[in-house]
Design brief:
alpha+beta; 2 domains; 4-stranded mixed β-sheet; elongated
């Protein structure tokens, strides 16, 4: 029974973070206030001081029950801050020794509480109000000491200071610990959801890419034949749509892997001439009837056999060419492939693929985001 109540109060997904913090403050505050009232009654404090502590305990219980039942977390946060931070604590200051008591710890706790249960402009406003009230309390206590109920002996002053340190320190520590635990719980849920999404996308994209690759491949073969213009145009559109869809699927899968932290390179031996030929053939059909001249320049010193992630290199080269063919209406498209030896590792080379065209170009703010370097060995 208690475990179910504890779970629904502090760790239920139905309760927002602010609500969980509020519930924690209400329950802890009610228990601490009641305990303080009992201790002060036993020690012979003024009846007014005991009644203030009991009243605080009762108010905390009522607010907890109303908040938990009606889910009025935002309104409850403002009420709690107003009653606890702006009314109760100033009252305790004047009924419990003022400058000579342990209220400094409680005042620190009020600022922490405001920051945990309020957001945005409401948080800023109430922090300012609370600081102004704290300063006012100290000024009044300093200039008008008769307005403060003093302790009857140094013993009670020391006890009050110890109580304040213990209660405020414990509440702040438990609130921080509670938020850390909630953060870890939410982080695990987010990681689990991201993994599930990645697994789903990987499975679905694999099932989609298999028939899609067949459509693109067969479309490319048919486009090489002599066909009536209308048939050629329709088939070209089908082929281009398939290529675009395949790129979207690959991008979605890559994004999912990056989010999950599972994006890795899979280097293996591959033949650069085959990669270049396949990528160019895939994109040349996009020219159609557009008056475009395509030129290819390949550094003759590049070895035919390379070692790297062929799939990622294909993606880079295909993205460069597909954008060039898509946004160039007429003129020329030049593809140049060259290499440089990696100065840090002499057994590695950097493959440089660059495309120059007479298309619409790239926005100035997007140029800095581009990289034309692909590392192979």
């Amino acid at each position: 029974m208690f475990g179910k109540f504890f779970q629904s109060t502090f760790f239920s997904d139905d309760v927002p973070l602010v609500g969980r913090n509020l519930n924690f403050v209400y329950i802890f505050g009610s228990s601490a206030s009641f305990l303080i009232a009992v201790i002060r009654f036993i020690q012979g404090y003024s009846i007014l001081s005991v009644l203030v502590s009991l009243g605080a305990s009762l108010v905390a219980i009522i607010l907890f029950l109303l908040t938990h039942k009606f889910r009025i977390y935002k309104l409850s946060s403002i009420i709690a801050v107003t009653l606890i931070c702006h009314i109760l604590m100033p009252l305790l200051f004047f009924f419990n020794g003022g400058l000579n008591g342990g209220m400094a710890g409680f005042f620190v706790m009020t600022i922490v509480l405001i920051c945990l249960v309020l957001k945005g402009v409401w948080c800023v406003i109430h922090v300012i109000i609370n600081i102004a009230i704290i300063i006012a309390c100290y000024l009044i206590g300093w200039n008008y000491p008769e307005s403060v109920v003093s302790f009857s002996s140094d013993y009670y002053q020391v006890i009050d200071s110890l109580q304040t340190i213990f209660i405020s320190g414990l509440l702040i520590g438990l609130l921080i610990r509670n938020n850390v635990k909630l953060y870890e719980s939410e982080k695990k849920k987010a990681e689990s959801a991201t993994k599930a999404k990645g697994d789903f996308l990987a499975s679905v994209s694999h099932e989609i890419r298999t028939p899609l690759n067949a459509i693109i491949g067969l479309g490319e073969i048919e486009l090489r034949k002599e066909l009536p213009k209308e048939t050629y145009d329709n088939l070209e559109k089908i082929h281009q749509s398939g290529v675009i869809l395949l790129n979207i699927i690959n991008d979605l899968l890559d994004i999912s892997k990056i989010e999950a932290g599972h994006f890795t390179l899979n280097p293996a031996p591959y033949q650069l001439p085959n990669l270049i030929q396949d990528t160019i053939s895939l994109n040349l059909v996009r020219i159609g009837s557009k008056p475009i001249i395509f030129k290819l320049r390949v550094d003759e010193n590049i070895p035919a056999g390379l070692y790297g992630d062929e799939l990622r290199i294909r993606q880079i080269l295909n993205n460069l060419l597909s954008n060039a063919f898509k946004y160039t209406k007429e003129g020329r498209i030049d593809l140049e492939i060259k290499h440089e030896i990696n100065p840090a590792k002499q057994n590695e080379m950097i493959l440089i693929c660059s495309v120059e065209d007479t298309g619409i170009g790239i926005k100035d703010e997007d140029i800095a985001k581009l990289s034309h370097l692909s590392k192979t060995a």
